[in-house]
Amino acid sequence: MLKPLNLFLISFALIVWSVLNNGTLGFFGAVIHENPWIFLTIYFCVMSHLTITAMSLSFHRFHTHKGVILNKNLDLFMQVWLWLVTSMNKLEWVSVHIFHHAHSDLEKDPHSPVQKGIWHALFLGVFDYTEGKSLPEVLKIKKTIRANRLEQYMHDNTFTGPILLSSALIIAFGPIWGSVLSVLNFMISPIFAVGGVNAIAHWLGYRNHVTTDNSRNIGFLFPLNFIICGELDHNNHHSHMRSCSFRHRWFEFDIGYAYLTLLSKFKLAEIKNVYTPATLKQELSMKMSELIESDLRFKKRCEELAHEFNLSYQDFKERLEAYCRGEKVKLEGSCRDFMNEVIRTLKANQRLKLSYN
Question: How many domains does the chain have?
């Protein structure tokens, strides 16, 4: 492979040639010059979605959590794209992210708004990520991650990727607009990955699951969650890390999992682990049933309702479980009220970390 210095000299020579032959607008700079704000907005949104999608599917869902297996060539293409646009590589990103999950929102977490404040995590989190790559514990994790020759090259030549892409943009759009586009590229990860997910999604939002950290779901910010490939349903992810789907309730949407489903139809992805809204309902049904058995007050009320509707205690409880799972079971108002009271108590117990043991 070419050495970084040789690549830089070749890129510089091509830029000089382009300016001398095509002027300051390059081959396509006039397109931006006519409607700069419209072009730059569309460019930033499209590039952000493509880049964060590659990061989410390759680095995150595949290499870190093993919820899916991507086709080797497709995965390598995503890794090269991320290297060109953001300078990031698999070895560093995955090792830092594994460390983040091991210490999520604790003192050692490289990018926690709980520990460092929301404004620090939002605007300075990229520097914490850079510092986190050099931590001894992160370096130990990195040594356990396998890398082929190209992956190792991207790791050893971090900024060669952005230099190559920036050179291509300058040749295509001229020195001014090419430089502007290059800066936009380099802003994608700090704004959306570090700031969007690791800052905001650990600060505000709702929680479907009780976890040891402060992870939250803010997927209701749909345009942002679309750009960021469904990553903003973050509490769902932290509660079931191996799942390659972040959608746990009917109203949530994970475009990343939709892409994986489509790729799997073309044999470009093999889905290994999925947690779905149906899984959530099944777990809730099981926990509700366990609470009724554990809490004498609920058990007695359940027996009374079963007698009222001429059912055995076990048959009545099975009807409640089926209704909770979303099955088509007719349930009277008093029974639904009882079931909702049990579920409210269950969630309160989880928040307060109470048990009946």
Answer: 2
Domain membership of residue 330 as a residue range: 278-352
Q: Mean pLDDT over residues 157-173, rounded?
A: 88
Residue 187 falls inside a structural domain: yes
Same domain? For 243 and 293 the reply is no
**Same domain membership, residue 267 and residue 151:** yes
173: in domain: yes
Residues 15-33 pLDDT 10s:
655 555 565 666 666 778 7
Distance of alpha carbon 315 from alpha carbon 320, whole angstroms: 9
Q: What is the pLDDT of residues 297-319, one digit of tens each?
A: 999 999 999 999 898 999 999 99
Q: What is the pTM of this model?
A: 0.84
* Token code pair at residue 39: 């072009």
**Cα distance between the two ends of the chain:** 62
Q: Is 3 exposed, middle or buried (0-12, 13-18, 19+ CB in 10 A)?
A: exposed
Same-domain pairing of 263 and 310: no
| 172 in Cβ contact with 178 (< 8 Å) | yes
What 3 state SS string does the chain have?
CCCHHHHHHHHHHHHHHHHHHHHHHCCCHHHHHHCHHHHHHHHHHHHHHHHHHHHHHHHHHHHHCCCEEECHHHHHHHHHHHHHHHCCCHHHHHHHHHHHHHCCCCCCCCCCHHHHCHHHHHHHHHHHHHHHCCCHHHHHHHHCCCCCHHHHHHHHCCCHHHHHHHHHHHHHHHHHHHHHHHHHHHHHHHHHHHHHHHHHHHCCCECCCCCCCCCCECCCCHHHHHHCCCCCEHHHHHHCCCCCCCCCCCCCCCHHHHHHHHHHHCCCEEECCCCCHHHHHHHHHHHHHHHHHHCHHHHHHHHHHHHHCCCCHHHHHHHHHHHHCCCCCCCCHHHHHHHHHHHHHHHHHHHHCCCCC
CB-based contact 166:178 (threshold 8 Å): yes
Place of tokens 């009222």: 308
Angstrom distance (rounded) from CA 89 to CA 61: 15
Work out the mean pLDDT of the chain and round it to a whole number: 89
Q: How confident is the model at residue 68 (pLDDT cuts 50, 70, 90)?
A: very high
Residue position matching structure tokens 């995590």: 121
